[in-house]
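EI: anyone free to look at a 307-residue chain?
SC: sure, send it
EI:
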Amino acid sequence: MKWKEISVLTEGICVEAIAGIFHNLGSGGVVIEDPQGARKYHNKDKWNPDSVSPDFLNHQFVVVKAYFHDESGIIDEFKNSLEAVKDNFNIECRVYFDEVKEQDWEESWKKYYHTFKVGQRLVIKPSWEDYQAEENEVIVEIDPGMAFGTGIHASTRFCLTFVEKYIKGGETIIDAGCGSGILSIAAAKLGAARILSMDIDEVAVRIARENILLNKLQDIIEVHEGDIVAVAAGMKADVILANITAEVVNLLIPEAAKVLSSGGWLFGSGIVDSRWPGVEKKLIEYGFVIEEMLTDIDWVGVAARKA
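SC: here you go
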C-alpha cells in the first residue's frame, strides 16, 4: 500500500493545531520531530545521525508529519486548514509532499527503533529485537507500525513514567487516544485489572490490537475506535491516560471529573508548554490536585489526582 506523506515545518506554538488538522482529516499516523530534543541527545552513545535529515540538528523549527492513503484526496482541504492556522498564529509554514510505501515505513522502524528503558522497570522492546529481561524489569513489546506511541517522544515517556509510579494493581483504566497501545500494555503488565483503549484513528486501533495480542493481554485490554470524550460519559474508572494534545485534554477534563472515583488519576501529556496554563486552570477548576509535573524542552506532562 502507498501512503502520502505531508511534512509541515513550523514553530512549536502551532504544533498542536497542525496535528489536529491531520487527525481531523483521518491521518493514518502523525509524527512530531523536535530538533531541540534531538540536539539534547545527539552526543549520546546510541545516537544515529542517519535517523534524521542531514540538516535537521541545525533547525529551529518542529516538523509535523502525517500519512494518508495515497488515494485519499485531502490535499486541498489540508491546504485550506493550514492557511487558517497560519493566519491565526501569524506564522509561516513550509510544506513538503512525498510518497511512502508501507513496507518502507516498517523497515525504517526496524533500522532506527531499538530497545530502551523508561523509569526503573519498564523496558520498551521492538517486536523484532531479542532482549533478556533483568530482575524486576517489565517488558513491553511494541511494533509501532503507522501509529503514534513508541515511547521515544517526551509525551509518551511522561505517561509511561506516571504509569510505572502510580499504578499499584487492580485498577480500571481508560486510555484516551491509545495510538500503538503502549500505555495500555504497560499498565496491564504493571497489574491493572481492566483497560478500555480508544482512538479515533482506525489504523491506530488495528495496530493497538495487534500489539495487545503480541503481549497476550487481550483478556485485559479492549480497544475501540471512537471519540473518548463522548464514550467516557457515564463510565467509571480509577485512572485515565490522556497522551493527546492540550486541546483534547481540556475537553476531557470535565468528563474525567465525572468518570474518576475519588482519589483517581488523570495522566495528561502531549501538552505544549505554552498551553499548560490553560490546562492547569481547567484541572483546578474541576477539582483536581496537581501531584506531579514533568517537562522536557517544550513539552509538559501532568499527574493530577481527583480530590
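EI: Confidence is low (pLDDT under 50) at residues 49-54.
SC: 👍
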